[in-house]
Amino acid sequence: MTRVTAAPEATDPGAAVTRGADARRVTGRGRSGKRRQRLEIVLFVTPALALMATFVAYPVYSAARMSFYDWKGFGPMVDSVGLQNYVRVLGDEVFTDAVMHNFIIVFASIAVQLPLGLALALLLNRRIRARGLLRTIIFVPYVLAEVIAGVVWFQLLQPRTGVLEKMLSSVGIPVPEQGFLGTPDLALATVFVVLTWKYLGLAVLLFLAGLQGVPDELYEAAQLDGASWWQVQRRIAVPLIAPTIRVWIFLSMIGSLQLFDMVWILTGGGPANATTTMATYLVSMGTQRSNFGIAGAASVVLFLIGFAMAVAYQALVLRRDTKADA
Amino acid sequence: MARRATAYGRGGPFVYLVALLVVAVTLGPVLYGALGGFRTNAQLARDPAGLPDPWVFSNYTNVLSNSAFWQYTLNSTAIAVITTAVAVLAGVMAAYPLARYQFKFREPVFLVFVIGLLFPAAVAIIPLFILVTQDLQLGDTWWGVALPQAAFALPVTVVILRPFLAALPKELEEAAMLDGATRVGIFWRIALPLSMPALVTVGVLAFVTSWNAYLLPLLLLRGDTRTLPLGVADFSTQYSADTAGVLAFTTIAMIPALVLFLAMQRHIVSGLQGAVKG
């Protein structure tokens, strides 16, 4: 509170100087005050809008424009090809598989990480020893760069020499000959396991935070009514943190659609394109093959899918929360 | 407070068992990396899951005496600092009128930032690469990566800051106004100091995102301007036979993010919750 009272005081030296001008402004409030205010607004908002225009809006627009041309990355864009790039992208099995991989990750995240994260949050939402430390530890993988986590897992998953294979075969579980990341049927599932390791902490942390907001009285009342632990969780705790759960699903969905780093490090999209995502597809098209038209079309498709899912989710699911707030 | 209901009850053995398992799975890979860095490649080949015997320090000292490692660290730090400064300053400047002024295009301008949330960097990555390297000639520079990163950090910054600034008491502004302060003066001397907690939160988020970023630096930076994640990735492919060296390099690269996280834990957590509520 000291800062609150100190702040006006700090303006005092300047105030003495500007007092005369201010008197004029107070009496002459009206047009000149309005104009001044408009100037201030423009001044304040311009840097942010300029950055957004230059580095977000313009590149997105260029990606969309690129998608209608046959362009190799230099010279003017002149060879308009209509929708041909879209036809090629959507007809390219590598891309349609990539879209499918993104959707598999989207749904697997919700199907696996949500129940797992919820179960852990409910279990840990008690007075156990070292709860703070536990929460910190669970969150550690989330803080690490995806690349750094990916490099460590890449070592763990090495075929033959990696720790995981040694551990699994020592308890008699058969391991694939090409390693987990080298076997097309297992590679995507393996990437998903690593992603779950990396991102489960965020789910647990958000759910735990939501659970802290549930008033104790509700639990006590339910307990007095003879509800079991499971009933209390199912009927009280989970419904009350439903808004948090819905937002987590949204974040997870958007993240899964943009997946790039982990795949690029663990498999590079391979083996035999078994783990490509939309982002790895458009990056390899744009940078390694200079196929900018194709990369542009893939960008637009990626954006449209994400946008459609975000709007649909907002309209169907999240609307309930904003309504409840109002 | 002495007796809480079941939901807050003490944990039984089962809860501790689950907690222990979670800790093991979570920290296992991190500890494997850290301990592996203290072993030789021969030790790792003989028994990948074993403990260092004897402890070897040369892997770590090699990384620390590697000038490229320090160059990557410097680049990562500089880029993250520029990104954070630009995003927080431009963000709070934009959020201020959006929170406290009444004007015609207020909601449309705010909508620009909300819609910005829906544009992942991946969508614009190829044109960004062309824009930065060819049009702006900022390839292989700190600013070339930091400016686009700041732009992509702006939507979440503005969306978190606006409600915070809107909640500041109006009386302070009016009092300052009577004392003759200008709007700009009020912004610098009252709004900014009072919104420090929120600024720290969005700042930490922008910093961590930049520090961990991979895709944009991958396309824009080469050679001596590479950041730590790029350095780690390249080191691990270049010296793939030297597992112990890779593990030591990776472990050291983890430390700054972990230290920052531990120091700023509260802000990161509250920022993420704020993002969720917003």
UniProtKB/TrEMBL annotation, chain A:
GO BP term, pick one: transmembrane transport
Coiled coil: none
One term under GO cellular component: plasma membrane
Principal location: membrane
Domain of life assignment: Bacteria
UniProt keyword terms in alphabetical order: Cell membrane, Membrane, Transmembrane, Transmembrane helix, Transport
ABC transmembrane type-1 domain mapped to chain residues: 99-313
InterPro entries recorded: MetI-like, MetI-like_sf
Pfam families on file: BPD_transp_1
Region feature (Disordered): 1-32
Entry membrane topology: Multi-pass membrane protein
Residues passing through the membrane, by range: 41-61, 103-124, 136-156, 186-209, 236-260, 292-313
UniProt-annotated location(s): Cell membrane
Stretch forming the signal peptide: none
Protein family according to the UniProt entry: Belongs to the binding-protein-dependent transport system permease family.
Protein name: Carbohydrate ABC transporter membrane protein 1 (CUT1 family)
High-level lineage: Bacteria, Bacillati, Actinomycetota, Actinomycetes, Geodermatophilales
UniProtKB/TrEMBL annotation, chain B:
Pfam families the UniProt entry points to: BPD_transp_1
Compartments where found: Cell membrane
Membrane-topology descriptor: Multi-pass membrane protein
GO CC list: plasma membrane
Domain ABC transmembrane type-1: 73-264
Alphabetized UniProt keyword annotations: Cell membrane, Membrane, Transmembrane, Transmembrane helix, Transport
Protein's UniProt name: Carbohydrate ABC transporter membrane protein 2 (CUT1 family)
